[in-house]
Structure formats: C-alpha cells, structure tokens
Please model this.
Amino acid sequence: MGTIAQFFESGERSADKGIFNNLVMLARVDGEVATSEQNLLTRIAKRLSLTDEQVKEIMDHPDSYPMVPPSTKEERYERFIQFVEMICIDGIIDPEEEKLANKYGVALGFESNELAAIESTVIAHFQAGKNRYEILEAMM
Model:
C-alpha cells in the first residue's frame, strides 16, 4: 500500500527506493544477507541518499517498492551491473540470486536470450578488478 509520504515523493526518489529494494531482494534470496552484501547495501543506500528510516522501511516492507524501469540504455545497463555486483559480492553466485537478477534484467528491457552473455561479460569485468563505472563504459 505505502505511506502518505510515498505518494508525494518525486519519481526519482521512488526509483531510487525501487533500485535499493531490488538489491535487498537479491541479497536475501539465498536466505541470508552476507556481511559483504550488507556493506554493499549500506554504500548504495548512502549513494542514493536514503535515510536509515527509509532503509529500514524498505527492508521491512519490500512489497511496497516496485521497480521503476530506467528510461535510457545507459541507466538500464548501470542497473543490471548493480544487480550482478550484488550477486557476486560475497564470492558465491547462488542460482536463485542469478535467476532473480535475470528476471530483473528482463524487467529492465533486456532480451532473455542476451542476458547470459551480458551477465558473463559483467562478471568477467568484476573478476578483472574493474569497478561499475569502468564496466559501464566498456558495455556502452
């Protein structure tokens, strides 16, 4: 349903919360949030300027925050790179995390038959020590 404040927030703020929620869902899908995943979530929450209260609300009520699809190709790739980073961050790519990341990839507008290649490329870049911005640049 959502709170009254959610109804009056900007589209960008709503999108930021949706991004964060999707990352929380990826971190939780294997049953526990590893320390490395929690650290990444904390960094992303700060980068998105989410308050501690907003983070708690999202984590307590994930169904209230739908994905707001980005409008540009660059934003779509950036979001998918974040999803792949989350599934890789703890050093173990859980099949359920990967399945959910690919579901989100389709929701972002990627064709299901191209996701495996995109994901493999992103993972290879992470394993080579590249950061998200370098990966995005390589993907564009």
